[in-house]
Amino acid sequence: MVAATHLEFAIFIRKEPVEVVSLYELVREFGKTHSFFRFETLAHALRALGAQVDIVTPQFKLPILTAQRLLFNQSLKFRSREAEPYEVTVGFDMDGYNLARVSRAARPGVAGNIHVASIKGVIADEMRFESGMTKMTMRLQAACEAKHVRRADLVMTTSAYAAERIRDLYGVTQPPRIIPELIDLDAWQNLARNSPPPSANKFIVLTVCRFYPRKRLPVLLAAAERLRSQIPNLEFHIVGGGPEEKHLQTLCCEKHIEDIVVWRHNISATELGREYSQCHVFCLPSLQEGFGIVFLEAMAIGKPIVAARAAAVPEVVQHGLLAEPDNPDDLADAIYCLYRDPLLRESLGNAGREFVRRFDAPVVGRMFLGELQDFAALRAEVPK
After folding, report:
1. Does domain 8-182+360-381 have CATH number 3.40.50.2000?
2. pTM for the model
3. Closest CA to 255 of 278, 283, 236, 280
4. Is the pLDDT of residue 336 over 70?
5. Which class is 185-358 in CATH?
6. Is the peptide bond before 63 cis (omega within 30 degrees of 0)?
7. CA 198 – CA 351 distance, rounded (Å)
8. Residue 6 above 70 pLDDT?
């Protein structure tokens, strides 16, 4: 289900006889289905390569997410013995910074012991778009993430954009290794096969995201306001939820577009697949994306994409229409262009479906494990 809840979990991965990996992640973005399934997909890909994967969940939950993450990371200091049999530990985003310290200080004699900071979203970059208490708590998280990347033996991230922001914002001298996000193409394409195609009587634009300021949903609504008089039977389906929800619904009413905007909350994976299958265009005008896995989901089902030319988006959306950031007229023009040209929609959708194959779970799983093996081999060559 696409939900706003937050859970944290740890994944222990054992690769015999070469290495053992421990992955720690505090699920953010979509809560348990979207992010959890993403890491389950990684775990499944690594199992297919001969890894033993165990998921460990902390036995506590706090009402304040930042406090929960901090306590979870503090608890990892006291669980270091659990990591001793593992040659490699990997922590995601801010989570695992205490394991990095243990890796460097408490177990120096363990051959091949490596800690990897895998950064999915650069918190110091994301918080530029926030304010008030949210920005304050994100500043705490960013400080922990900075500790994580500075203490880690190896830093991985998902895009060249994210790698540059990590170096600029956290003062990391060595360039992070780039391992992209991954997607289970078989699963997504099965969802598409079991869902009805787009209706000929409507033109549906789909957006899937958390409702954060950096996603720029007011720009999307402004484009919808302009397009309603140009595209008959137009609908904007917006899937997700988050802190901007009330503001966005108020804005929707002020623009008198309630009749063409459909809000979807807490939907199942099957329903999400149906939304992708039934849309004509996928659109997300976000100003900040460390990668943008929703673009992979749209490509997997052969949908043309409209997005903003910002952050990591041009790296991922290489077969789509990119609008000027924060420009609702340019965004509307791109959507209208696709409405008027079904052949262009088909061409971009087919190109995206082919391009996304490089992000299939088995492909990225091999990249992930191969990067760890290469680093371990290089480290083993260094004289003690």
Report:
1. yes
2. 0.88
3. 236
4. yes
5. alpha beta
6. no
7. 19
8. no
